[in-house]
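Design a sequence for this backbone.
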């Protein structure tokens, strides 16, 4: 191997995985919000998008972000990828895939507690998102509202209002995530700012 080949190998970098990660988030939240808003019925056809787009696509993005030494992106994509795999598994339990005994022993309050845990996670990640870009920051703010709505509605606190809060927040997450994914692809592809994502707030850095 000559010196030029060595140099070329060193210069090869891993592509930014944000586009596929955000696309995965956009797809699953779009489909899931359609059920919450009453546009579609049931969860059977939400499951594939939860598993493959919400789960596997975001886990893939997490692994690729780790190669960039990006702790924030790695953690965010992994946590939400695992969230959607967890949600998919929870729905499968409710459907009796793991047996009637498991389905009969379901306590929705445990899911509500899990949503509170993810709300805590999302809140401190929102602080971190302030120093990434404004599109990602708004996505995290909407995720905060999503988990507030999910937690309270699941725990039976103002369930109708909180369900609607979660539904609207989830739909807006999808819209902002589609935009963020498009910006990541097109800005890199064209080598210029085609879709602006907003500079970091510059408060902590």
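Sequence:
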């Amino acid at each position: 191997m000559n010196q030029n080949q060595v140099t070329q190998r060193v210069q090869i970098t891993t592509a930014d995985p944000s586009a596929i990660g955000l696309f995965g988030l956009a797809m699953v939240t779009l489909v899931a919000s359609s059920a919450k808003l009453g546009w579609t019925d049931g969860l059977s056809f939400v499951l594939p998008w939860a598993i493959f787009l919400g789960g596997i696509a975001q886990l893939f993005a997490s692994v690729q972000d780790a190669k960039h030494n990006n702790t924030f992106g790695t953690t965010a994509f992994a946590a939400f990828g695992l969230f959607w795999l967890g949600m998919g598994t929870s729905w499968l339990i409710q459907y009796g895939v793991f047996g009637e005994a498991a389905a009969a022993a379901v306590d929705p309050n445990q899911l509500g507690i899990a949503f509170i845990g993810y709300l805590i996670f999302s809140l401190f990640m929102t602080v971190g998102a302030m120093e990434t870009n404004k599109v990602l920051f708004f996505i995290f703010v909407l995720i905060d509202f999503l988990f507030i709505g999910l937690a309270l509605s699941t725990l039976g606190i103002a369930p109708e209002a909180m369900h609607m809060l979660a539904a609207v927040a989830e739909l807006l997450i999808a819209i902002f995530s589609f935009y963020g994914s498009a910006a990541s692809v097109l800005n890199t592809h064209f080598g210029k700012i085609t879709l602006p994502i907003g500079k970091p707030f510059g408060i902590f850095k």
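Residues 16-190 form a domain with the Serine Threonine Protein Phosphatase 5, Tetratricopeptide repeat fold (CATH 1.25.40).
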